[in-house]
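Why run this: before we spend reagent on co-expression, it is cheaper to look at a predicted model of the complex and decide which construct boundaries make sense. The entries below are exactly what would go into the expression plan.
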Amino acid sequence: MSKEDEYDYLFKVVLIGDSGVGKSNLVSRFTRNEFNLESKSTIGVEFTTRSIQVDAKTIKAQIWDTAGQERYRAITSAYYRGAVGALLVYDISKHQTYENVGRWLKELRDHADTNIVIMLVGNKSDLRHLRAVPTDEAKQFAAENGLSFIETSALDSSNVELSFQRILTEIYRTVSNKALENSGDGIRPTGGETINVAAQSADGTNAAGKCC
Amino acid sequence: MSPHSHLSPLDNSILLLDSTTATDGAFVPHSSDLPTSTEPQVALDHRRLSNRIQKLIRIPLSVSQTHSRMGSIRLGLGGRAEKRRLAAVTSPSTPSLASPDSGKVGSKTAVAGTTAAAEAATPYPADNSTTRSSAALPADSVQQEIEYDDDNSSTNREGFTVALSLFAKVKARVLNSTLHPVSSKISTSSNNSGSSSGADSGTHEGSRRLDRRGSKDASRGSRDEDSVGSLPGIAVGNSSDADLLSQGVTATRAPLSSAKPTPPPLLHSDSGQADSGHIDIHHPNDQSSIHTDSTSCHDPMDGQDIANDSESTVTDLDESASRLRLQKYVFEDGPEAIAVLDANGSMTTPQDNSTLQVVPTSEGTDAATQTAPSAAVSLPLTVVEDEAQDPLQLFQEVLTRRHQTEDEIADSLHDLRRLILAYGIPTEPAAEKTPGARSKPSIRAKCWKLLLEVHHVSAQEYVSLVKQGKPEEYGKIRNDTFRTMATDKKFLDVVEEDSLIRVLCAFSWSTQATSYDESGVSFTYVQGMNVLAAPFLYTMAEMDAFYSYSNFIKQCCPLYVQPTLDGVHCGIKLLEECLCKIDPELYDYLKSKRMSAELYAFPSVLTICACTPPLDQVMQLWDFLLSWGIHLNIICIIAQLHSIRNELMSHASPMRLLRIFPDLDADRIIGETIRMVKLLPDELYDLLVRHPYDPSVVEQISW
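The model came back. Tokens follow.
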């Protein structure tokens, strides 16, 4: 059993957003520190994992990357099932992708767990000269909708690590708080199944040996 | 999933034929019909088997010709689909056609009758010349042909199973590189199918399934053609088969032909320019406008000039057109054709050693109406016994055949399928590159067009589609095109992004312009279609690629590109079902790891494996899938899982392995696929066959 397979928490995080905003490159930058200008478009769903440390706990992020085109939303119920976090990505140089954020939010509200932690991510911040979405505007939108917000560039890797760190930490806080609450009244409905796994494994014996 | 699949009457008939052919005693020929085979059951080594296969493939078309005439007698009625269906149903009861006591006199009668019937069944007076020309054959040749028929027709069908099993076996051998002597029964006519034993029948089962798809193709083909007929995009109008036959690549060749229709060409006119008889009757004005100059024909989207491209394409097509002429049209593959082909058991009769006389057809007949003699008559019956033949030659032979009847075409198409299965499409010697000129269409390009029933390639139509500019989905298309096969350098070298954009846009326009399907199937751009278009552009010139791609999407996998991706989901479900039957252990294991096929197989299902490198292996796999049905892609994916089975089973997190599939090895995958197919229960296989195009399967499989 490799060290990689040991973890305290397993969180499923999905990436959503219009096609071509750079979801796949965000993931590859985060998990493999790679960026490919000529990456293939994602077909269906791809997922990958990476573990990080938060509060001396190993948190394994299972990151689901999906094709952005709305045609694929038919597969979303499986896609969102068990997700505890979502990165909603748009392209700061393409206003249309920002306009569609609202639709993606609705999608999340419809299909995902209500407690899902959502982060709005303005990607391609390296394209300053082409900026079409002002940072402040997006920030305000995020605040109004209860989302956290960050701008990233998968190309120059700025803020990529930070964005995943933040959302995973936030999820961790939420989950551990919830675990506490659960131990209090005990009858609250559980969230997605990943939360359950993680919560159960939080009692010290880790979940090593389970599948990724 | 419902355990009972719904079978349409058509499907039933095919099944019926299959099973009857395989087992029904009605096919045991009357003993007096049997050719006196001098060849006992022999053990053949690998090479000899290969020769066998070559024989199988080089079936003289005279058999099929006669056979098809008989078909006309039997049926002698209108609609092709109906005819097919009836043929499938009635053929088991027709062995008596070659009545045991029918001597030459009987044969002559049959000829007269069949010719008449063929004429009667020919729905278009214009093409009577074709039929007449056969009637006008010198008596000797007719006689000989009929003798041949007499001796063998009744054995045609029971050779069927034997040939199939033999064929699959050889293929398996090729794949496994097993060079051990094979102690297989090479059944001649004295073996009826029932004698195929144990292992044989297994393999046979496999290939029968393959064939079943072929048959379904046929029935679908005819239906599709009807619907295509109503398309402005694919304008065959209400033309009958004859029109199709006589049209050729019409519009495409128009620029090189004179505007005035001239009589059909003489035989073997391989020089394309001579064939000026094929003017597109639906677009009589095309010729003037097709000749594009750089100003009138440019890509409105990129401002890029495609004139050169299309012009050279025209030339390509024109060159190949004459060669491909008669093969292009009604490539239906019917049960009859299968049965006929397998008559090769008869190839082992002494008679085979004589060469059937080449008929000096055209002499003394009206040159203007004389059509080419069928390859059937002009092909020597003998097959070189011991000289291993170059697959390239075999392909060339099939590709240069000429045909007079649908059945001949079906036969040739079937031959082509078999060749592809047995040898794969050979790599051609690299043509020397002359700057400015495009290379001739490859064998693969020709084969794909034939397999996809691309009858109609019109530069004018394509250009006008492209000229319409940006379709609604243009943004989405652009978003994907530059990322298509972006990691494959070879692809990027061969295919320009612009041509991909044009093909996808033109397809978008062509499907918008028509209310295509009564079943409510409509098309819009879906991510992944770019990947599906890529192999076509990699293989052939842009216009060919467009028409091939269109047919591929519309006929092979319309449900895969629906907005809801119904077909893909269905395919994924079926993949799991099939995996459960084929390898329950692996299925359980993956399930225990919560690895649903939706996660690991989605890209491979949607793109028909085109997303897995290397591209040249994708091509070979597609050769196989386009020949025998893209539903087999599902099994091919299972075969890929199987190839890393041990690693999967021992790996702690198999998803990591499956995130990226191992590089394709087409030969191995095809071999495994053939092996696996026979493990599937019939009703499951039936669903599998239909899932890419039949909405009822989607409804049937609930999730």
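The first strand of chain A starts at residue 9 and ends at 17. The helical segments of chain A are 23-32, 76-80, 95-99, 101-111, 135-144, 160-185, 193-201. Bring this page to Monday's planning discussion.
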